[in-house]
Amino acid sequence: MYRINTSDFNLNHTLSCGQVFRWEKNDWWTGVVNGEVIRAKQEGNELLVDSILDKNFIWHYFRLDDDMDRIYSEINRDEVIGSLIEKYRGLRLIRQEPWECLVSYVCSSNNAIRNIKKSIKRMSECFGREIERGYYSFPTPEALAEVNISEMEQCRLGFRTPRILNLARMVANREFDLYRIKDLPYREGRSELTRIEGVGNKIADCVLLFAFEKLESFPVDTHIEHIMKRYYGEHFKGVKKSKIRESIAEFAREYFGGYCGYAQEYLYYADLGQHETINLLSKPLFLESHGDFRRDRGSVRKA
DNA sequence: CTCCAGGCTTACG
DNA sequence: CGTAAGCATGGA
Fold first, then answer.
1. Per-residue model confidence as pLDDT tens digits over A107-130
2. Could you give the strand order of the β-sheet that contains A29-33, starting from the edge strand earlier in sequence?
3. pTM reported for the whole predicted model
């Protein structure tokens, strides 16, 4: 067990905001990262960690090297995002392992977070390695490449099953070099990732942001579309439905700048807070003290 | 019953 | 080109 001194870091927000799928909270947070178990808990500015993985790894994983003063000042363009920075201060992006991140987000397409988590857990239990009693590593590309469709049925991935098995085979036999993407610029990385069956712009953007350090990536899913229309709707009024997500992403990159990926996570978490009641540890609501900025109240989904 | 969930692929004009 | 159905599964 060891302690890490932090500032502008909030473990609960970081692990609850929906970017990762394998962490669970009891008294401590427990997760499996890079094949090892991590238990973590925050006490004030101190992060308590119990793991084989060392301080440097944890520091890097939670992006404690990010200069939050600079990031906040760059993305803080108005009082909407400003109030979210205040509310969720300390929420950090996480540096995820690319393979697990990619597979996880291929699972996410037209799926619910609860089901994504269950499927990933089952894949690990079925095809990963048992690290300690009850905890399993995420299966390697080589392990998944050997699995057939009927063996995957218990993971309840539905139509995503063949996509994931194909992907595993392509990565395992080096038809697809996942680890090259980190060295590519954002746009090239995205065009590489979208060659994969089951990976469009949104999922590519998630992987580029969460695993490949592309903080200029701004993934637009149903939640982001909803909240961006609500607070920035005048910037893409009249855009056709089929173009709206790309339009939102382009606007956000320009508006929030090179760290817009961070803005995305705060906006996403805020919208998640409106629709999910489970596992949210943040204060109950959202901009209640900033009524001036609420627009389009008619579009708010009923509670 | 219908509708939706961190979308994407395919078929059809 | 652009649009829309179809896709497994589970929960509201």
1. 999 999 999 999 999 999 999 999
2. A2-5, A46-51, A36-43, A29-33, A24-25
3. 0.92
